[in-house]
């Protein structure tokens, strides 16, 4: 939604994975905190109607690699800064305020990057690479590519979980 001057009425647009149960918990929490004030514009990248052109050109694969947001000024934001800005928008800026410290922010981003890389597996879904391959196959009109794990070939490597994660999941 745009204001009459062409500037959006929201402060930040959150791009989220609507197929991720943990992501949806965060979205639902933030929606409740936003309480209809429209400070946050929530956009589901997994929705069939998702349009990269309307979202700073951020395609599905890019958005799945790590969290993205778009500021009202059009600036693309990624990583922990997204959470900081979202929480500031709903009056809970203190939660992520410590990440404004450069050292803490860098450490938080490194931890988040690891989480983002393996979040689909950690939350019980297939590896991110497999999800992206399936989505590309569906977009190319090949229909449901089925499970790409378990076989030989390009998809099999994407199904591997790091040793520490494999041990933790056992």
TrEMBL record:
GO terms for molecular function: protein-disulfide reductase activity. It comes from the Eukaryota. InterPro entries: DCC1-like (IPR007263), DCC1_Trx (IPR044691). It holds the Pfam family DCC1-like. PANTHER family: OS04G0668800 PROTEIN, SI:CH73-390P7.2. This is DUF393 domain-containing protein. It comes from Raphidocelis subcapitata. The lineage of its organism: Eukaryota, Viridiplantae, Chlorophyta, core chlorophytes, Chlorophyceae.
């Amino acid at each position: 939604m745009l204001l009459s001057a062409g500037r959006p009425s929201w402060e930040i647009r959150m791009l989220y994975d609507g197929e991720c149960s943990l992501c949806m918990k965060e979205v639902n929490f933030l929606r409740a905190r936003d309480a209809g004030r429209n400070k946050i514009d929530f956009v589901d990248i997994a929705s069939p109607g998702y349009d990269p052109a309307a979202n700073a050109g951020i395609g599905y694969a890019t958005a799945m690699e790590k969290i993205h947001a778009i500021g009202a000024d059009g600036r693309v934001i990624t990583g922990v800064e997204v959470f900081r800005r979202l929480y500031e928008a709903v009056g809970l800026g203190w939660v992520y305020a410590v990440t404004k410290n450069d050292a803490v922010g860098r450490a938080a981003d490194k931890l988040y990057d690891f989480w983002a890389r393996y979040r689909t597996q950690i939350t019980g879904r297939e590896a991110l690479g497999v999800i992206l391959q399936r989505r590309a196959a569906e977009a190319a009109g090949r229909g449901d590519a089925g499970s790409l794990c378990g076989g030989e070939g390009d998809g099999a490597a994407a199904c591997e979980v790091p040793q520490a994660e494999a041990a933790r999941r056992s």
